[in-house]
Amino acid sequence: MRDAELAIGVHHPRPVKDWLLAAPYDWRAALAVLLIALALIWSGNRMEVGKMLGLTGEAVLSAVGVQESSQVGRGLGRMLGALFPFAIEDRQELARLPELDRNALPMFTRIESAEVTTFRMNPDTLKAEPQVAVKEYLVHPFGYLIKVLGKMVETFEIAIWATIISVILSIPLAILGARNYAPNRFAYSASRGVVSFLRAMPELIIAMFLVLGFGFGAIAGYLALGLHGAGFLGKFYAEDIEAADRKPQEALTALGAGKLRVLRAAVLPQVAPSYVAYTLYILDRNVRMAAVIGLVGAGGIGQELKGRYDTFEYGHVGTILLVIFLTVFVLDQISARLRARLIG
Amino acid sequence: MSVAAILSAAQAIGGGVPAHLSFRDLRKIYADGVAALDGVSANVGKGEFCVVLGPSGSGKSTLLRVVNGLTDLTSGTMTLSDTALSPKTLRGIRRRVAMVHQQFNLVERASVASNVLAGAVAEVPSWRALLGWYPDHLRDRACEVIARVGLDEIHLPRRAAALSGGQQQRVGIARALLLRPEVILADEPVASLDPAISREVLGLLREAAREQGATVLCSLHQTDLAREFADRIIGMRKGRVVFDGAPHLFDAAAEGRLYEGLTAPVGQSAYQEKAYA
């Protein structure tokens, strides 16, 4: 019947050569590009992007030997040079270990002696004179590395507990903050508000406050990271619940299931892969942030990092940075595999 | 009361089949003013395979959806056995009434087994629902219904998305059969399937329901399938019942009342109709 309609021209289709196919870009797109370009030029001036490019260019040129030296190159070079060699061993002055039995040293340790020159005021001449003393050290060849690895384990524990707290807090926040599962508008707005607030507060600041309450140490660290992570997970979990396919949800509602059961049986299987991905990302992020958050005294490797940085022991700083990098790298490999298996 | 309603009441009484579902003057007016149900009255006997037939927009889906309260009535009463549908009885009625959907409505990522078991999610204690840990008798029952719909042990762990359309609807039917419902609502169960598979699936639905003594209310838009499978046809047009009777009474005149003036091809299977759309 349709064919007949078309044939007698009820439809009046236009000849193909007159068809209008919308252009992929129009004047609005062009205007938007222009405005963004102007905004970037304005902001680029404020942010000294030109200077950044100039200095970076100089540094690159001096690094490849075209130019004598550059300000940035000198600064960074000094810093990077100080990081090497990484401090691996641990040495303690023997004089401070009065209980040590020289004939039964701890495993792998040895005693080294070194000449230390100190300047002392000579009471006769009233001049500072160099005095050479021999000091003995108990040296553990991997002592510092082991200590840093121990701190890294602690940091990882902080990250794990922070992730657990984020997940537990974000589940009710996500259910209340999903438009189609919130019991009422008030709960929805309240939940979204809490989630935005948690995400907006930088974890470093939350940690500083919590250190005041809980004291220095890991508790403040994992609570701060957990709260911030809940802000992230609460938002993403909620948005996935909203976007989940409605058809199976209707099927289970029709069988008499309540909202929570529908969530469990029809929504959770749909959103599980992305939940795993978000949660692994938060774990990864928590490991990195746990290293930073120690700067304000919230436990973990960051506390060690700040201590060594403040006493100019850059070799030790280098070791810490290396261990953090290796941990993040290994974690990334593991989580990629885990995700592939679970999402498959 | 319309002539058709009297006819159906007479048939229900005359045939000696007690009414299982009864519709009294159902009206549903949507927010945009469309009257999807405009005074529908009918009885469906226990164990009947009753096809609700009509073109798109005739209100047949709405009629099915008011039975389990997925759509609220504007006025009228729906009664299942002796229970009138109300907000109080809604949950109870939903547990006695299963539904088979046009788009299958499975969780595509989940396995066949967990899709079927999800049919019991309203029946098990909360902690079991939460863990997805169904008791043994339900697990056994799930295997039983999966076998009944013609699937095999190898299908149990497969994802629903990996199955063909016909197989997915078999899973949908298995989920509906799981708890031995009194009534099965089938909302255009074969509209997404090709004609040969449609016949298999409808035949399966009819036989499986008959074995359990379940009443089936099945909406279709293909007159050929309705004639072939129905014990009884309720024909709808613009929210009203325009035919109610046995399939052999559904003649050309009755078909005309359903479809006259519509440009959609009549008596074609969905597969062919889609090619026009």
Tell me what you see in this structure:
The complex is a heterodimer of chains A (344) and B (277). With 344 residues, chain A is mainly α. Chain A contains twelve helices and three strands, in the order H-H-H-H-E-E-E-H-H-H-H-H-H-H-H. The radius of gyration of chain A is 31 Å and the shape is extended. Chain B is α/β, with parallel strands linked by helices and 277 residues long. Helix content of chain B is 38%, strand content 22%. In chain B, helix 7 packs parallel to helix 8. The longest helix of chain B is centred in the last third of the chain and has 18 residues.
Summarize the entry for a quick read.
With about 350 residues, chain A is mostly helical. Chain A has helices at about 1-5, 25-45, 50-65, 70-85, 145-175, 185-200, 205-215, 220-245, 245-255, 260-295, 300-310, 315-344, and strands spanning about 90-95, 110-120, 125-140.
